Amino acid sequence: MEQIAFMVADRPSYRQACFELIEAFVPGVDVLFNEPRPFSIEIDQSSDDITFRAREYDELQFIKSFKIPTGKPLDSESFKGFLYDFLCMIFNRSLPWGSLTGIKPVKIAHQYIAKEALSKEEASKKMQRCYEVSEEKGNLAASLAKRELPFLYPLDQKRVSVYVGVPICPAKCAYCSFVSTIADKKGLLCENYLNNLLYEIDMMAELVSSQNLTVDTLYIGGGTPSIFSEKQIQRLLGALKGTFIHPGLREFTFEAGRPETTTREKLEILKAYGVNRICLNPQSMNQETLDAVNRHHTARDIENTYRDIRDIGFRSINMDLIVGLNQEKPEQFFHSLDRVMALEPENITVHSLAIKKGSRMKAENGHHFKQLYTDDFYRAIEKNLKNRNYLPYYLYRQKYTQGNGENIGYAKPGYEGIYNLLMMAEKESIIGIGAGSSGKVYDVDDDRFEKVFTVKDVKTYNDRTETIVARKLDAYEAIAAKENKKRAFS
User: Is 207 exposed, middle or buried (0-12, 13-18, 19+ CB in 10 A)?
Assistant: First the structure.
């Protein structure tokens, strides 16, 4: 099946549900709406019921009707549930995450536990009942939600995390869909970007002070922040010291993701400024795969840089691996996993390859790829990690992933990545600094957040820094004023 047409009412929420669910069942299929194709699904709705019909070359293949609850209009969530049941009938199988297609399923379990006071077991069962997730996934989501609670509570309106983005790299990885820019050999791009980044840091420091905020965690990510020279890293950290780097910081992460940009001198500077968590991300430990995805280093380079990180005294290291790169066979992935576990980093994050718009893989092959891995393969990953005392602590999902899998962070007890937890739980405000960074202002009383965006492109950011930063400050201050006014009258 290369194409499928949905004949459905022109409602964005319905169309989105159709698109997301069919992609989960048949990754890479082309989805069209209200355009006849050899295979089509017709959806007819009355006030009492909704009927789904699947036709192939105009011949009726499947039909199923669902009763709409009396006195209630059909909301998008119910529509999605009915569609999911129909697709299960067509394809004669279910999905591990049921009708859920969002990237943060653990948030649902969190709400059940924190707001409805359900036990972990009750939260899992409710997810199974409401969204038809498997028992395995329901238990996983509920366990992660329960584990994250001590890191999130008590909630505090004045506590924030800060993300500093450096979307510049020495080379573009084939799977990367982020709007990142390749550094020039003369270093002009990095220097210009750093100067503008320092300006925004100064402005955001004033915002933090004026709003009496306390920075809880700090994350410098990319791109490749270690693309900066030793002197540039010192300037960056010097500008952050005080308001952003202070003794009460719970966690300070720096992504030194590539060994070819990470030197002992840079690591010593990071250590001196209080960085206590380093990310070193091999993605694979197989040379053929590294070459295929445009990673300009060897597995031995990763191991040598890891030893430098340890020698300098860092006690919390994260390493990323991606399932599905270069269509690796299971034994190739387990070779990478074994080699990384042998180093004994405190965190290992296992990503499922997502072929997304903006990546070289998507440009060359579209979303089409072979499903290479079984559920038993993913269970074996978890088992191997648990046997080495790595426990899952956060999870998120993406569209177009290999095996319809998820991204799971594993950590040895006591070494959970706090910023990652906060990002997924969305229970704390986050200030984003730099191109491509997103801010989220969390309202503790209403349990909701508003986003503040930055332009993604480095060139645009460099050309219009003052205007961009002014707009962001206005957005943060407007949200804060609205919250203050609400509290004054509550």
Answer: middle
